[in-house]
Design a protein that fits this description.
The complex is a heterodimer of chains A (251) and B (604).
Chain A: H1 2-41, H2 45-59, H3 63-75, H4 79-92, H5 97-109, H6 119-124, H7 129-152, H8 157-183, E1 188-190, E2 195-198, E3 207-211, E4 216-223, E5 226-231, E6 236-240, E7 244-246
Antiparallel strand pairs in A: 1-4, 1-7, 2-3, 4-5, 5-6
Helix pairs in contact in A: 1-2, 1-3, 2-3, 3-4, 4-5, 7-8
Chain B: H1 2-24, E1 29-34, E2 38-40, E3 45-52, E4 59-61, E5 68-82, E6 85-98, E7 102-106, E8 110-113, E9 116-119, E10 123-128, H2 133-138, H3 145-149, E11 150-154, E12 159-160, E13 166-175, E14 179-182, E15 187-189, E16 193-195, E17 203-209, E18 212-225, E19 229-244, H4 262-268, E20 271-279, E21 283-287, E22 301-315, E23 318-320, E24 324-335, E25 351-353, E26 357-365, E27 368-379, E28 386-387, E29 391-396, E30 401-406, E31 410-411, E32 413-415, H5 420-424, H6 427-439, H7 468-496, H8 498-523, H9 526-545, H10 554-560, H11 566-579, H12 586-603
Parallel strand pairs in B: 2-10, 12-21, 22-29, 23-32
Antiparallel strand pairs in B: 1-3, 3-6, 4-8, 5-6, 7-10, 8-9, 11-13, 13-18, 14-19, 15-19, 16-18, 17-18, 19-20, 19-21, 22-24, 24-27, 25-27, 26-27, 28-31, 29-30
Helix pairs in contact in B: 8-9, 8-12, 9-11, 9-12
């Protein structure tokens, strides 16, 4: 009996310690977040971005923190970093209008106009990768549910064909949309102000042209300190790896 | 008649198209081969990648091999028609040049044909120590003959700067006394210098040297130093001497025959190819570092070396505030145009600028022409209606100093500055804005406000479909769908074929009946055993004859089976036992049990 009481007390103490540590961590997190916001409102954009970076490094990614960090970078003139951070925030909250609006504004201000999308790209950009994935999952659920209900009730042939055809079509669209959008899920962003595409992976190699800070590029391979990238206009060449940063950093 | 001709034409075209169609979808095979398995450092071997069965262009992705350099030598395609069947192949040629001695493996080369990826087998080769020019010559059959047969001459090069374009002339001499084929274009051997792409069709002339006539191939090309220092370079060219095979004497009298003559050799004999390498004398290419002194620090120098002029114009010269103006900047002259970048428009709050576009109009050569940049600029206000001076700097190797070309300011007449936008921002206010913006030049107005709640944190950024819960749920739904589909197919099959179900029931009933029999036999219960035998037979035969099992009697059995059937004997014994007691020995029960099991199984 005494042993049971002792175990209960130990368990309660552990639970209390865990809960209080969670509460303290959340409080620290909030304090750091508000500190960043205050620095931003005092126009100390550099300090604000550093505070938000510190918060991200300790707690992980949050769309709100990334968004505020991106705003700080925008205001301190670091276009590349700002676009990179907005893109990261968009990966977490793809439909957030603030993130989309600020990113669009920054790109417009910097003359970073994207190339005209093809019909396919335009079609698949109707939904985000998350929405395409959900469409595929929901249609799979409908198919499974229909099969399950079919055990109890007998549907007419017309109903069966209609439901299954539409569901398979939606599943195919969802899968294709997911695959298509996933290709564009992890670009890299040019963060250097004087980046150039080179024909060979060494610094004195011939330049193909300049890459504006904030442009998206898609790395294909790496060689020492250089990455072979394709930019939005399908130009391909080598660029110092330090000049770009991936939106989804490798763990 | 005419209809018949049309019909025959149609058939012919159909056959041709079918053959080509077949070719397009023929089986594709990929082969990669290296001309030599051992290559001296500084020399190159030929790598051939052949795609059989491909009639369109193929995309060859060469792997990267540490310490090995690949030089593209072009692609060729071939179509054959033999015995009515078409075959086509595309060959891509490369020169493989090891940079250091050692053993190398070229990993599988990926070739994309019509969207499908094929891979070749890996190739292993050895790179041996470098060979001197004399050893190269000794590789050829006759030392000394080669020097006279084929050799290369290069125009002199002096001291240059990194990136500077140095025009040179490469001449390959072929002694007219020999017949020779060239196997490759001249290849630059050496580090720190790159050569521009050589033309496939060089200029062909004839020259006389030392009393000998030579066919001369001339390439006009350029060299460019990429590393500071003195670099020893030379040029090599792979060729083949065509040596006629000696004819054997056909004379029955011995000695020389009528046809034992070089004239006839050349007509009737085929040639033997002897590979030779033409090598140029080694030359030193000196690359000096660019002087730090006098180098513009305003960013107007981007590595351009040569002699250039700058011309700037704007169109239209009269515009509204907010209307785009096209600024055209032309850099003309001679030099490394790949390093010529657009002059930078100075940062100004009066002008909004966009990224410039570039185009190069070469004037017959890669290092002279006009590079044009077009940049859209927009006046934000009427406070500074002047396009500021633009600068372009280059290094002049003749003068050995940096030169900066500067454009004149261009006055723009800004109309309509009394419009709505300008009325709300008078000049004084604009000036105030300029001062304020100068203090915080990087601020971006119009951003949506900060978020005030942190929201949920995540340690990784990954798409939804890569999350564990999503994948688990999708897998679960998929297996539910798969399981139910299989189950429904099975149900449907049973509905379509009720005999399957009937047979299954029959098998089950027989199995149960035989089990009861066996149980009764083990218990030594003769009555139960015989009753079980009768029931088992009635059940099986009832299903088989489509009769009520209990209605089956010994008469039915004797009518349908032969008289010596074991089943009749057992059934008779069972009927007899039903009307009076019967006792069976264990052996008899075992015999009856075996008869019933065997014969009923046979009846199924």
């Amino acid at each position: 009996m005494k042993a049971i009481q002792f175990r209960t007390i130990i368990l309660l103490i552990c639970a209390g310690i865990f809960q209080s540590s969670v509460i303290f961590a959340a409080a620290d997190r909030d304090a750091l977040f508000h500190q960043g916001n205050e620095e931003f409102s005092r126009s100390e954009f550099q300090a604000a971005s550093e505070t938000f970076t510190q918060l991200t490094e300790s707690e992980g990614f949050s769309s709100a923190v990334l968004y505020n960090m991106a705003n700080s970078y925008s205001q301190s003139g670091k276009t590349g970093k700002a676009i990179l951070t907005y893109e990261r925030a968009l990966r977490l909250s793809p439909s957030d209008p603030d993130i989309r609006g600020n990113l669009e504004l920054l790109r417009k201000e910097q003359g970073l106009f994207p190339k005209e999308p093809s019909n396919t790209e335009e079609f698949f950009s109707l939904l985000t990768i998350r929405q395409w994935s959900l469409l595929a999952l929901c249609s799979l659920a409908v198919i499974a549910l229909f099969q399950l209900i079919g055990l109890r009730y007998r549907f007419t042939r017309k109903t069966t064909v209609t439901v299954l055809t539409l569901s398979f079509l939606a599943f195919s669209m969802g899968s294709m949309g997911t695959v298509f959008e996933y290709r564009l899920f992890n670009p890299s962003v040019v963060i250097a102000t004087d980046a150039r595409i080179l024909v060979s992976p060494f610094s004195s190699a011939t330049s193909i042209g300049a890459l504006q800070e904030g442009r998206l590029v898609y790395p294909e391979k790496h060689h020492h300190n250089f990455s072979y990238v394709a930019d939005e206009t399908d130009r391909k060449g080598w660029i110092p790896a330090a000049s770009i940063e991936a939106v989804v950093a490798k763990e | 008649m005419q209809q018949r001709i049309i019909f025959l034409h149609s058939i012919l075209w159909f056959m041709i198209l079918s053959l080509f169609g077949f070719t397009a979808y023929a089986d594709v095979t990929v082969e990669a081969s290296l001309s030599h398995s051992s290559i001296p450092v500084g020399r190159a071997a030929q790598l051939s990648v052949t795609v059989n069965g491909a009639s369109r262009s193929v995309d060859v992705q060469l792997p990267e091999v540490q310490g090995v350099r690949f030089h593209n030598r072009g692609q060729s395609s071939r179509m054959n028609m033999m015995n009515g069947s078409f075959s086509s192949s595309i060959s891509s040629e490369y020169l493989v040049q090891p940079l250091q001695p050692g053993s190398y493996t070229i990993p599988p080369i990926q070739i994309t044909v019509s969207g499908t990826i094929y891979a070749s087998e890996p190739i292993t080769f050895e790179a041996t120590g470098s060979v001197s020019q004399s050893s190269t010559s000794s590789a050829v059959e006759k030392k000394g003959t080669t020097d006279e047969a084929v050799f290369i001459r290069v125009t002199k090069t002096g001291s240059h700067y990194p990136g500077e374009i140095v025009p040179i002339q490469l001449k390959a001499y072929f002694n007219q006394q020999y017949r020779a084929d060239i196997q490759s274009l001249p290849v630059l051997q050496g580090d720190g210098v790159v050569m521009s792409h050589l033309e496939d069709k060089p200029r062909q002339t004839q020259e006389s040297l030392g009393g000998k006539r030579y066919n001369v191939l001339t390439w006009e090309t350029t060299l460019s130093g990429i590393k500071v220092g003195e670099h020893s370079i030379m040029f090599t060219l792979d060729a083949s001497l065509l040596i006629p095979k000696k004819r054997r004497s056909m004379s029955t009298f011995g000695g020389s025959s009528l046809f034992d003559d070089t004239f006839f050799n050349s007509f009737f004999d085929d040639y033997q190819r002897k590979p030779i390498a033409a090598v140029s004398p080694e030359i030193t290419f000196k690359v000096l570092s660019l002087p730090a002194e006098g180098q513009p620090i305003d960013g107007s120098f981007t590595g351009a070396i040569g002699t250039f002029e700058l011309k700037v114009s704007a169109n239209p010269l009269t515009a509204d505030v907010g209307e785009p103006i096209t600024l055209t900047m032309e850099v003309s002259g001679q030099g490394n145009f790949d390093r010529v970048e657009s002059p930078v428009f100075p940062g100004s709050i009066d002008w909004k600028t966009y990224s410039p576009t570039a185009s190069f109009n070469n004037q017959g050569s890669k290092y002279s022409g006009i590079k044009s940049f077009e940049q859209a600029i927009v006046a934000k206000n009427d406070a500074g209606p002047e396009i500021p001076t633009l600068s372009f700097s280059y290094f002049d190797p003749q003068l050995k100093k940096y030169v900066t070309r500067t454009s004149q300011p261009i006055h723009i007449t800004l109309n309509n500055y009394t419009n709505q936008a300008m009325q709300t921002t008078p000049k004084v206010e604009v000036q105030q804005q300029r001062t304020a913006l100068a203090e915080t030049p990087t601020g971006l107005p119009g951003l949506a406000p900060l978020h005030l709640e942190t929201g949920a944190f995540s340690h990784t950024i990954s798409p939804l479909f890569k999350k564990v819960w999503f994948m688990s749920l999708a897998a679960l739904l998929f297996f539910i769908f798969l399981g139910l589909t299989v189950y429904k197919i099975r149900l449907h099959r049973l509905e379509q074929h009720p005999e399957i179900l009937l047979k299954q029931q029959q098998d089950k009933t027989l199995s149960v009946d035989l089990e009861l029999l066996d149980q009764a036999r083990k218990n030594g219960d003769s009555m139960a055993f015989l009753s079980g035998c009768r029931a088992a037979m009635q059940n099986q035969l009832g299903s088989l004859w489509e009769m009520e099992p209990s209605a089956i009697s010994l008469t039915d059995l004797t009518r349908r089976f032969e008289a010596n059937s074991g089943l009749i004997e057992v059934f008779a014994a069972a009927e007899q036992a039903a009307y009076g007691a019967a006792t069976l020995s264990a052996d008899t029960m075992a015999t009856y049990s075996a008869i019933v099991a065997r014969e009923l199984e046979e009846l199924k």
